[in-house]
Structure formats: structure tokens, C-alpha cells
Amino acid sequence: MHERVTVMVRWLVLCVLMALPVTAAQAQVSDLVSSTAFRVCADPANLPFSSKSGEGFENRIADLVAAELGMPVEYTWFPMATGFVRNTLRTGQCDVILGFAQGHELVLNTNHYYTSTHVLVTRTDSALAEVDTLSDSRLKGREIGVIAGSPPASHLARNGLMATTHGYNLMVDRRVESPIETMLRDLSEGRLDAAIMWGPAGAPLAKSMAGLKITPLLKEPESPKLFYRITMGVRQGELVWKRKLNSLIRKKQDEIDAILREAGVPLLDDMGRALKTDGG
């Protein structure tokens, strides 16, 4: 009997010891969130999203959140390329990344604060200006630009359009290369007949260029999907911080929508089936 009790005690002690590192780790993660500033991890040269000059729509959303929290915004700058999360959020230098796709495993996602989709950009005087699906026969034989490896490329391949498709780099340092801007310039100057890009990245830039039409791609029934719900990303385990941001997103949703609409971001309903109505 004594031996049985000893074994049970040892098992209980082992369970407690196994639990201790997890509890400590959670406490340490929680302690990383600043109580004096809204610390944002961001790209210094990634317009229309963010820039050191504060011109991006994510800069404006950060200002909105910080004002609600009663804190100043502090940035940790790093190019949005390989190693971004590892060198910013995970080092504890900053506490949130704006503009993270829902379900991404590198971060803990807040509730989404907008849903958007890829867009087709054409010249307004082009025969392709009325095209609204990638299965449209009018795209056959046309010079089309797309970000290599992005979801629309799979749709182009399925529709037999790859022979005249031009790929632009996906992961770049925007301080030295800007594929979306290059693609739009190639379209505007006639080297492309159409360009396909992520709406929040391309639509605000295309909006500022004369003679271009932006068409959200809402009619692609097959995988991969072209719309995504966009969240704020925090460190894994920071549930209290996540809930605080969720509450703030819910409270300030109309103001967030207004910032995004003014920038030219195509906003969709939560299911990605239709454009979101103003106030809806």
C-alpha cells in the first residue's frame, strides 16, 4: 500500500512539473504586450498598406486603434518578406501585425476586420473592360500579368491562359522592387492587356492611375478561392490581447470600413460573394 501511494505521489509531482513550463511560458508571452504603446510590426515601404511616412491605410487603422487604446503608435520596421514574423512579432519588439490572412499558422488571428478579393485590372478603352471572370473567352491569347504563385495563377492555368501569361515576383523587398506597380505600368503602357492582383494591394494603386478599370473577381466557383478574410496577427497564446483587439474591431468597424473604402480597397461580405454595402 505504501509503495502504491508513493507511486501516485510521484505521478502527481511529475504532472505538476510538466505543467509549470507551460504556465510560465504563457505568463511570459502575456508580459510581452506593451502597456504604454500600440506597437505595430510593419513594412516601411509597402504602400498602399504601410510606409514610414504614415500614408498607408494600415497606418491610418493603426492610428485609429491606438487612439481608442489611449496610446501612441510605435513601429518596428522590417520588409514584408521571408522572416518578417520571426524578426518582428516573435522577438517581442512589437505586438501586432495588421493585414494578416485568417488561418495563417505563424500568428494567432483576431477576428477579421475586412474581407477582400483579387481583381482584374484592364484599360477602360479595352475590349476586355467588361470581362468579370477568368473563364471569359475574350482573355484567350491576351497578354496577362499575374503575381507568380498566387491563387489566380491556378485559375489561369485551368482556363488555358498560361501561354500568354507573364509572372511577376511574389516575395520582394518593396524598397527595391514593386511588382504590382510594375504590372500596372506595363498595363497602362500597353505591354499587357490585363493584370490580376490582390485587391487591397492593387486597387488603391490602380485607382490613382488614369484610364484603368478595376473589376473584383467574384465569379470564380472553383478552388483556390480568390477572397480572404483579413485579421490582425498577435503572438500565439496571447488570448487576452486578442480578445481586447476583437472588442475594439467590433466597436470601430464602421470607421475601419470608411478608411478602407477611401483608400480604394474592394470590400466584400463575409462569404466573399458580393461587394459589401456601405454600413452593411
TrEMBL record:
One Pfam assignment: SBP_bac_3
SMART domains in alphabetical order: PBPb
Keywords: Signal
Domain of life: Bacteria
Position of the signal peptide: 1-27
Domain Solute-binding protein family 3/N-terminal: 37-266
PANTHER family noted in UniProt: ARGININE-BINDING EXTRACELLULAR PROTEIN ARTP, MEMBRANE-BOUND LYTIC MUREIN TRANSGLYCOSYLASE F
Protein name per UniProt: Extracellular solute-binding protein, family 3
The organism of origin for this protein: Polymorphum gilvum (strain LMG 25793 / CGMCC 1.9160 / SL003B-26A1)
